[in-house]
Design brief:
single chain; alpha+beta; Endonuclease I-creI; Cyclin A, domain 1; 2 domains; four-stranded antiparallel sheet; 10 strands; rod-shaped
């Protein structure tokens, strides 16, 4: 089971207490995975990749309206069957207008692009609407592979509305256009923040655990790579310095060097693997002082070569 599917299974177990919150959640579902159904009268048709989401749609609708509901599974040459839900009957048109899929207009109705603002009477209703939107068309990457969550919408108005509802709670949601759709997306720690906001506590905790473990592993790798690079620099610098000292010994003798340079030369020859700081500690001088002395030895060797 994918991480998204587990998150949705987690969400459908959330108890939606009030009628206002149930309607808000049904609106989020209807506007993201629902469509106008025209059969014997108007109705709503929903498509989901998760059977549990289809059952949640029927449960919410049945608690609010007098409806006839049908759930079907359609494979359509897919690895996982689609869940198809059809709601029709006496209150179907009222469901469509209450959730914002249809808007009364002169001479009839027109398709709506966002949820009625009257749905968001309180914080619980706002969370419920966002939960419904994620259940309807949301997806979340496996945190082992990346930190990305998105909700696909049919209209720019709905994507803007979703972002506006998320913002006061903290997570920073953004929108982008993908072909004929509009996508609300979150990244990084905002993903777990959003999952916790809509009630997917177990998924949010799992996400954060994986993210913390992955970030720590990356930190260890970066530190190891840095240490390896520093070791390489130390080895290369030591080899250059020792070649310079050998050249000085061959052409003029180390005994002719000033005492500080002679001391630095002997320390380097006797401790070829020592770091600059370790040599400085042996000479009881600062790191910059030891670096200056060794650099001076390399410069003398180059002057000898150019004579």
């Amino acid at each position: 089971m994918s991480f998204s599917s587990k998150a949705k299974e987690d969400l459908v177990r959330t108890r939606v207490r009030t009628k206002a919150a149930r309607l808000a959640q049904l609106s989020g579902l209807t506007l993201t995975c629902g469509a106008l159904y025209v059969g014997r009268g108007r109705g709503a048709a929903y498509t989901s990749e998760t059977l549990a989401v289809g059952k949640e749609i029927v449960s919410l609708a049945a608690s609010l309206y007098e409806l006839e509901s049908v759930i079907e599974l359609s494979e359509r040459e897919r690895r996982r069957p689609l869940t198809l839900v059809t709601l029709s009957g006496t209150d179907a048109q009222r469901l469509l207008t209450d959730t914002g899929l249809l808007i009364p207009a002169e001479g009839g109705f027109r398709l709506g692009g966002a949820a009625p603002e009257t749905l968001f009477s309180g914080e619980e209703a706002k969370r419920a609407f966002l939960r419904g939107a994620f259940l309807g068309s949301g997806s979340c990457a496996d945190p082992h592979r990346g930190y990305h969550l998105e909700i696909v919408t049919r209209t720019q108005a709905l994507s803007t509305q979703i972002c506006a509802l998320i913002a006061p709670f903290g997570p920073a949601a953004k929108t982008m256009r993908r072909k004929e759709r509009f996508v609300v997306y979150l990244k990084g720690e905002d993903v777990s923040g959003f999952l916790a906001l809509i009630g997917a506590s177990a998924s949010a905790l799992e996400f954060e655990n994986v993210r913390a473990e992955r970030d720590f592993r990356n930190y260890v790798n970066r530190t190891t790579n840095c240490d390896t690079a520093n070791i390489g620099k130390t080895v290369n610098a030591s080899a250059l310095q020792r070649r310079a000292i050998d050249l000085i010994e061959e052409h003029m003798g180390l005994s002719r060097l000033p005492a500080p340079l002679y001391e630095a030369a002997m320390l380097r020859l006797n401790h070829p693997d020592a770091t600059l700081q370790e040599l400085a500690d042996m000479a009881e001088i600062g790191k910059s002082g030891m670096n200056h002395r060794l650099t001076r030895l390399v410069r003398i060797a180059r002057e000898i070569q150019h004579e």
